[in-house]
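Check out one such.
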Amino acid sequence: MSEAQRAAIDAMLRRPQPQALRSVEEIRADFRALMARMIVPDGIRTTHTTLGDRPALHVAPADTPRAGTILYFHGGGFVFGSPETALSLTGHLVARTGFEAHSVDYRLAPEHPFPAAIDDTLSAYRALLDRGEDPSAIAFAGDSAGGGLAVTTCLAARDAGLPLPAAVVAFSPGLDATRTGESMDTREAADPIFTRKAVERTGAMYLAGADPHQPLLSPAVHADLTGFPPMLIQVGTNEILLDDSTRLAARARSAGVDVILDVTADVPHVYQAFAGLLDEADEALDRAALFLTQRLRAAGAAHRQPE
């Protein structure tokens, strides 16, 4: 790992912030500008499409894809972000695995508060199933709020009686709208991106008065994960959402779920987006790709009939 790389990224993320409270439009524009600086790999092709009743970005290898689908949910606190801002993440997963990905453009708060995002991601999963895709060849993946959606969409699918996907990958997931994790305070000085005040502001936009003490909003605290597919959770120590990941992993273990908790020291929120700029990001994506290829292959083999 490179201390110089980590220091440079930390300095970039700690750029001076305006004193005035930013509007939602300004937050969205700033995030687009930041994510436009991320490196998108060669060897992929993108197509705008529709999944369920929402726009989506189809990301595929330039060559023939292997059997398997990643249903990706972008980050942005449920208020900002898009499939395009997450393209460095989906692109690197596709390039490393050979699977195709569908990145869902779910509705955002405050225009569309909870449960709009989950309704849209569940609808996208239904659309894959309805067109005949095998759930054993589908993985959910996401970053930040989208990492939370990878978990809560599983909950919603289970509650709806749908078969669950073969695997879940969550990068720095947001999993606790109650904001009760100790890291919300103990890691605030180390976090170059978020403060408690900032996440509580965008969180309130998404909640719109809903009680955060429920599984679809705070799965790290309230969800029963019984029957969940294998999970890989990756998080850095320099983020206030650290305890969202550690507590969800503990709940998964207690429910008998196969879970890998991958904690990397001295890296920020969704550090995987810095692939090509940060050694730890490339290493984490390599581990995520290995997890996905192992799980989708194993799940597919389990569903094949003997000859």
